[in-house]
Amino acid sequence: MKFCSICNKKFNKSELLQSSDDEYFCKECFKYEYCAVSTKKKPPVSNKYEGDSSRKRIKMFPMEELAKIRRNREIKRKAVPSKRPLQCPHVDCNRYVSIYDLNAHFQHEHMEVPITETALDARNPLTFQPTDIRYGVKQCLILLNVIPQNEEIENSGSQEKPLMPVTVAVLASRLASAQLGDEEDVVTQDENTGMVSGNNDKIIIWTASNVLCDFSYTVAVSTITENVRVKHYGPVLQLGNNPQTLCMEGQCLILSHFHFLGMSDNGLKPLRLDVIIHSED
User: Fold this and answer.
1) What does DSSP assign to residue 162?
2) Of 12, 89, 207, 209, which is most buried, counting CB atoms within 10 Å of its CB?
3) Is 11 exposed, middle or buried, given 0-12, 13-18 or 19+ CB atoms closer than 10 A?
4) pTM of the shown model
């Protein structure tokens, strides 16, 4: 048995705290006598907003200047494109190609895909057969090389690196209802065309570029006589997006089963597709 040096009460030795001076304290006395004192001796925490000299002052910017700084950082970040290779967005092609070689890859490996140059806000028409759009894969309908505006060429300057050319792929895919989480579907086959489709199938169309850009686009699908027209407007995405995710998030033009069958006369007639790439303004 030992006595507490403060309250002089008797305790078992195992219940006491022993100091380096061979003194014994009970837990209550030690807590009130030493812990409280040590708390009082702690230096006050300095407030950085009250002129703390030990820390670097935070520089404050007006909102307009701060927005300008962020905009300049974003421009510098976009000016240096990623060197990571891209997976070819065309059906049954799993090759990885450089962002600089996407055009050459299509010219040699996918000659059936048309490649054309387009100015901003210019209309690019083409036709396609909805029966040619396959399930669960991405198909490139056309490859558009965007011609930079004269202002962008002048602003780039001769001393700076030339602007990275933007290539926009117009992509399409057909999604079955099961791929979108709907298991209740009726599958039918047309006697004339042999086209197999479900009542809740969807054909989606969107655009994606080889580099990050601030372009937007308008895509419209209509009948040949243009008496029925479906349109979508949105930002140009980057290659590599999942068709199911795009469809569920609504980031593409969505043609329902009754849309593409009714507009194409049960798959017997082609559909007209118009794509316009818009400038940042």
Assistant:
1) P
2) 207
3) middle
4) 0.62
> Where would I find the H helices in the chain?
27-30, 36-40, 63-79, 102-109, 150-156, 243-249, 257-263
The pLDDT value given to residue 99: 82
Query: 233-262: buried (b, 16+ CB within 10 Å) or exposed (e) per residue?
Result: ebebbebebebeebbeeebbbbbebebbbe
Domain boundaries, the chain: 2-40, 113-278
The answer to whether 128 touches 205, Cβ cutoff 8 Å, is no
Q: Which of 115, 121, 116 is nearest to 149 (CA)?
A: 121
The architecture in CATH of the region 113-278 reads Sandwich (2.60)
Distance of CA 100 to CAs 85, 150, 213, Å?
Answer: 9, 22, 15
d(CA 24, CA 18): 5
Q: In 155-179, which positions are buried (b, 16+ CB within 10 angstroms) versus exposed (e)?
A: eeeeeeeeebbbbbbbbbbbbbbeb
Can you tell me the distance from the alpha carbon of 184 to that of 123, in angstroms, rounded to the nearest whole number?
Answer: 39
- 56-83 pLDDT, tens digit each: 556 666 777 777 877 777 666 555 556 6
3-state secondary structure of 268: coil
Q: Which residues contact 48 (CB under 8 A, 6 or more apart)?
A: 55, 58
